[in-house]
Amino acid sequence: MESSAPQPPLAAAAIQIDSHLDGAEARSLAEDVLDGLTRPFKELPPKHFYDARGAQLFDQICELPEYYPTRCERAILSERADELAALTGAVELVELGSGTASKTRVLLDALSAAGTLERYVPVDVTESMVRECAETLTAEYPGLQVHGVIGDFERHLDHVPPAIGPRIVAFLGGTIGNFTPGSRRRFLREISRLLGPEDFLLMGTDLVKDPRVLEAAYDDSQGVTAEFNRNVLRVLNRELQADFDPEDFDHVALFNEQHEWIEMRLRAKRELIATVRGLDLCVHFRAGEELRTEISAKFTPERVDGDLSAAGLELVHWLTDPDGLFALTLSRRTSR
Ligand SMILES: C[S@@+](CC[C@H](N)C(=O)[O-])C[C@H]1O[C@@H](n2cnc3c(N)ncnc32)[C@H](O)[C@@H]1O
To answer: Ligand 1, closest atom to CA 73?
Structure first.
């Protein structure tokens, strides 16, 4: 007998979204600004780039000729996704910093072709991206459940829903490089706690190479990365009633040879004082003074292996592109 009870629309039934960014998120921006803009060497964490506009700009960066990481990572995934699907038998994909999930589709295709795919769990700080990708992916993959988590992966990993079977936790795009070495290992340890005995971490890392190639990837000829960098000031203007003129700052990208990481900075073109009304704060910049907005660490195989081991993870597969520009690693919890 057919039920006459009203049914939810198909897509809505397949989607669950949890948001953990309430007032606490606003406080995190405020705390980061208070902490980071009152230091002798000014600094902000990169997560604040990503409002809806920042997320769009990042997507444009991924299409730029100079920005090889996305192309390389996609090429590795395309080449090896079937193998990864077979090896892991994953029924779900959890993705940290999922963005628009454009490369993720390669993995979803492989898991779907293997007949195991049931659920996708995108975790991202940008609400619009999580919602949009839940809508599009449930339409593209009939039967797929999407449980989106809008949150900060540094604070909300415990809100990732319990596994429904073997899973891959993906951390793509080289985002792990945004952590300093100590916090990187701590964060990997947090991720390892998400992994059961049948689960795998799939992580993308950009590799050490010619500094000219690296610097060009973060300072493109069309100025998209510069706009992305300055976007953090627009976020401060909107969220904390600040009065930065983004055009007062030059975009700077340089390879720090000692640490083997790229630094993005904003350099004041002139002496200025910005007011952050929401925090009752005045911030003074000398002419030429810099605000560091991102580090992006570059890796060697030894560095990746050392980080994974320190976090209680063991390398299962090291996958790279033919030119050795980027690597994907599959790892799992060290067996005891
Ligand atoms: C470099 S992009 C990578 C996007 C995508 N994974 C890719 O490979 O193209 C970083 C992504 O992580 C998200 N993100 C950055 N910091 C975050 C944080 N602390 N918590 C949650 N998401 C974060 C950003 O919103 C953005 O979508």
So the answer is: 8
